[in-house]
Amino acid sequence: MFQPDRISRRAAILNTLAAFFAAVSGLPGHAQQVSATIDADTLAAFVDILLPADDLSPAASALGVPAELEEFGRDEPQFGRLLAVGTSWLNQTGSGPFHALTPGDQALVVDWMSRSDFNQIPRRFFHLVRLVSIELYYARPEAIAGFPVAVAPQPDGYPPPWS
Predict the structure, then answer these.
(1) For a 10 Å CB count at each end of the chain, is N or C smaller?
(2) pLDDT level of residue 156 (50, 70, 90 thresholds)
(3) What value does the mean pLDDT of the chain take?
(4) Long-range contacts, stretch 69-76, CB < 8 angstroms, 24+ apart
(5) Residue of higher predicted confidence among 16 and 48
């Protein structure tokens, strides 16, 4: 029986990101004048707003998600450019850099980004960084260590309730 090549979830996400990168490649001229440097502190603060620490799991920065995002940005130049433009934009939202804002103000900025126009940098940055951050975060066992699921149910499924 013929079975088509199976694609991994990670490969599917990367293919989806590639499609978005094609759209991002046409950034407006003013965005091209922004520094090509990714602000690591701002990126860490942004990702920690998306995936904060709680009673069950650590914050994204504690698991090294921002560093992995930067590494991915080095491997994929368009994603790296988006990180640089996005962190630069975040640093212009307050009276100082984004990572120096109060957590409440950071959350307000991120909430606005989540509802802004998808064809503009803030929303595109929010969407793509969130997508990749969640994938990187939950790929680590430490992220789910506090949850009541001891092991992944695949391939056998969850045990029946009568066992």
Answers:
(1) N
(2) confident
(3) 84
(4) 69/43, 69/129, 69/132, 69/133, 69/136, 70/38, 70/40, 70/43, 72/132, 73/38, 76/17, 76/21
(5) 48
CA 95 from chain centre, in angstroms, equals: 25
The answer to whether residue 46 is domain-embedded is yes
CA 132 to chain centre: 4
Beta-carbon contacts of residue 139 (< 8 Å; ≥ 6 apart): none
Domain of 74 in residue numbering reads as 36-144
Per the structure, the count of domains in the chain is 1
User: Considering the domain boundaries, does residue 110 fall inside one?
Assistant: yes
What type of residue sits at position 133? S
In a domain, 126, yes or no: yes
